[in-house]
From TrEMBL:
Keyword Transcription appears in the UniProt entry: yes
Any one GO molecular-function label of the UniProt entry: identical protein binding
PANTHER family hit by this protein: KDP OPERON TRANSCRIPTIONAL REGULATORY PROTEIN KDPE, REGULATOR OF RPOS
UniProt organism field: Blautia faecicola
Name of the protein described by the UniProt record: Stage 0 sporulation protein A homolog
Entry coiled-coil feature ranges: none
Residue ranges annotated for the Response regulatory domain, each copy included: 5-118
Record-linked InterPro entries: CheY-like_superfamily, OmpR/PhoB-type_DNA-bd, Sig_transdc_resp-reg_C-effctor, Sig_transdc_resp-reg_receiver, WalR-like, WH-like_DNA-bd_sf
Function: May play the central regulatory role in sporulation. It may be an element of the effector pathway responsible for the activation of sporulation genes in response to nutritional stress. Spo0A may act in concert with spo0H (a sigma factor) to control the expression of some genes that are critical to the sporulation process.
Annotated localization: Cytoplasm
Pfam families linked: Response_reg (PF00072), Trans_reg_C (PF00486)
UniProt keyword annotations, A-Z: Cytoplasm, DNA-binding, Phosphoprotein, Transcription, Transcription regulation, Two-component regulatory system
UniProt-listed GO biological process terms: positive regulation of DNA-templated transcription
Length: 233
């Protein structure tokens, strides 16, 4: 399998060099952009497989870049930012980011996120006929073969991680899935950052499928343990 083409959008030279050196050492192809305008140009011109995006750029906020890219492409976007507040993460995810990595980060964690995204891209390209199943629970419907989810017959615009979370929950309806199980299934690890990211992704997923997120109908929280998909009549 050929290595992915990755667009690195980062204005800090030292961080950009760290990322590109890591990518080169692991035989990934890459492009770089130091600001928002050049990022949009590179993304539209070269159609990279993955974008690694810093939010704090000199000419525009990274969230605006996400929104612009989402007008023409679903290419995976992994945010790498020093902004660690849940509100910042939710804003980026709501705009269309697929994952969020907080600075400072380890090289191993970055590579793990890239591997997970790469596997996800391969899975999207290879859908088994055996998986052509539609899950229905109340007004929620998940078409596993098409990779789409619907609520009240309206398609939900989910990020790849939100969709994978939903699939894990629906395929295990009635079972409590632990934090460790979920983070291992999504990121292949259970770092503290993964638990924090899981909480954020679950919050954004709930906003999209729950009529009243504070009084959930579909996803039940088991504090300190994990989450469970409830059966809805």
């Amino acid at each position: 399998m050929s290595k992915l083409l990755i667009l690195v959008v980062e204005d800090d030279t030292s961080v950009r060099n760290l990322i590109t050196t890591t990518l080169k050492a692991h035989e990934y192809r890459y492009l770089t952009a130091p600001d928002g305008q050049s990022a949009i140009l590179e993304a539209s011109s070269h159609n990279p497989d993955i974008v690694l995006l810093d939010l704090g750029l000199p000419d525009m906020d990274g969230v605006e870049i996400i929104k612009k890219i989402r007008t023409w492409s679903n290419m995976p976007i992994i945010v790498i930012s020093a902004r660690s507040e849940d509100t910042d993460k939710i804003d980026a995810l709501d705009a269309g980011a697929d994952d969020y990595l907080t600075k400072p980060f380890s090289v191993e964690e970055l590579l793990a996120r890239l591997r997970v995204t790469q596997r996800r891209l391969l899975m999207m390209q290879k859908v088994s006929p055996a998986e052509a199943v539609v899950f229905v629970n109340g007004k929620l419907r998940v078409d596993y073969a098409a990779g789409c989810a619907y609520l009240n017959e309206e398609e939900l615009h989910l990020t790849p991680i939100e969709y994978k979370l939903l699939c894990l929950l629906t395929r295990n309806i009635g079972k409590v899935l632990t934090h460790t199980f979920l983070t291992q299934s999504i990121w292949g690890s259970s770092w503290d950052n993964d638990i924090a990211s899981l909480r954020v992704f679950m919050a954004t997923l709930r906003k999209k499928i729950e009529k009243e997120p504070n009084s959930p109908q579909y996803i039940q929280t088991h504090i300190g343990v994990g989450y469970r998909m409830l059966k809805v009549d």
